[in-house]
Task: structure prediction
Amino acid sequence: MKRPTKRDHIIALIIIALGLLLDQAVKLLAVKYLRPIGTYVIFEGVFQLSYRENTGASFSILSGQTWFLAAFTFVVIVALGWIVFAGKVRRGTAYYSLAAIMCGGAGNLIDRVCRGYVVDMFDFCLIDFAVFNVADVFVTCGAVVFIIYYIVKKGEVFIWRSSQAKQTRG
Result:
C-alpha cells in the first residue's frame, strides 16, 4: 500500500463534490415537494418519504444543539481533511471511505449553517429507525467500510511517521 497520489486526491474531491451535489439536490426536492405533504408512502408499512427538520444528531440526539453539532462537524471534517489530503492514510479503500465521511459531514453541516436544521426524508417504517438523508448514507457507509477495512488490515491504514523517521529506524 502506498501514499495517495494526485489522482487519488482528485478522485476524493470528486466523491465529495458529487456527493454534496446529490445530497443538496435531494434535500431541495424534499423541501419543495415533500414538506407541503409531509409523507409520501412508497411501500406501505415498509418505506416512505417523510419530511423532517432535525436540529439534533441521529435519532434526534442533542436536539436543539445545532451550533454545537455544526462546530463539532466542522472540526471533524477539518481533521479528516488533514488526514486524507496530507497523505496520512494509505491510498485505496480506507482513503475513499474517509472522503465519503467528509462528504456526508459537509452535507449536513451546510444544512445546519444555512437552515438551522438538517433536512431528513428517508423513513424505513418497517423497523423503528431514524429518518435520514443522503449525507447520512455517506457517513454511515464510509464509516462501516473504513472500520471493516481497518480490522481486515489490522490497523495498517495510516502513515504517521515521516520518511526521515523511517530512514533512521530502518
